[in-house]
Design goal:
It is elongated, with a radius of gyration of 25 Å. The chain contains 8 helices and 20 strands. It is an alpha+beta fold and about 375 residues long. The structure holds adenosine-5'-triphosphate (ATP) and magnesium ion.
Amino acid sequence: MNPPVARTDGFLKADGITKLFDDVTAVDDVSLNVKKGEIFALLGSSGCGKSTLLRMLAGFESPTSGSVMLDGVDITLLQPYERPINMMFQSYALFPHLSVWDNIAFGLKREGLPKAEIAERVEEMLRLVQLTALAKRKPHQLSGGQQQRVALARSLAKRPQLLLLDEPLGALDKKLREQTQFELVNIIETVGVTCVMVTHDQEEAMSMASRIAVMNQGRVLQVGTPREIYEHPNCRFVADFIGQANLFDGVLSLDEPDRCEITTPEGVIHVGHGVAGTPGMALAVAVRPEKINMAKSRPVAAHNLFMGTVREVAYFGSYSTFIVDMSNGKSVKITDSNTARQDLTGITWNDVVYFWWSDSSAVTLSL
Ligand SMILES: Nc1ncnc2c1ncn2[C@@H]1O[C@H](COP(=O)(O)OP(=O)(O)OP(=O)(O)O)[C@@H](O)[C@H]1O
Ligand SMILES: [Mg+2]
């Protein structure tokens, strides 16, 4: 007899959901398992199906197939208003003729809550998003960041069990986005609401989410913590989409439990993990630019030591980027944070350099 299976079910479960619009498969057989209290990000480029997936979770779109469960209840066929879910849309359009106070109260009034309770909740929300002093203003009298907080307060006022945010910071410029990311996480954590957010900005997903689902062309390619996805991408797309990666294509030439060798046109690359693959199978090796060391004189490095000529140098303040061309034409990107991890200041255009990385700094990718 099999041992009992532990219940690992999430709070929100999407099971094999697909959405077809005529001949377009906007969402393709997606399964998700979101835990209670987490901030879960759907990350992918424009048109990959993020909003459509979120709209199906909210009930504004019905799946062509598949199901959605919330806290053990099948909600696939429920109307949006029947779900304990609130969604903040990509353009969070506040009512322009209503004050901040009335914008936040809007949904509560529609629910027919007693006046005193509405007032209490609106005041609570205003304190939460620190807009008490601006309660009487109209949206056009607020900054972009303040408008965003009103929209958030409006979404939270009904105390949803699940908060869905579609590009919550999309309307803000870069600097304000970064500040607001922290505020938003603080507010969500204070309330303790489970949150699924959509973004196409990988830094935003990395800094805000406890876990990220990376999407491409309607499919979820990988789900993991920001660190897992960055350090152990499971395919080329994820490695390339999250941060930057140098990819070396080759074939598996040695495979042991804790190490492997990939033979590439650039030479043999040693990787500090096994792949349990078949000798000769095609694999790529991914190495992050910041994990590569570089020097003008030959270093003492047993593995993964290559040479090239510096073609480009770009200084970005806190870090510098070098593009190094190898003799076979392959270009490699190397970055260095300008905090003296290694002094690369002497390296410039047309210098012949050695570059190398440790076995544990690379991962293999099969797709
Ligand atoms: N109502 C619709 N009818 C037909 N096609 C649609 C509809 N809604 C979305 N699509 C298509 O489905 C695909 C996914 O769209 P979706 O809006 O989910 O993308 P997204 O990831 O949110 O993109 P963005 O980052 O630009 O907001 C696109 O090809 C889009 O054109
Ligand atoms: Mg969208």
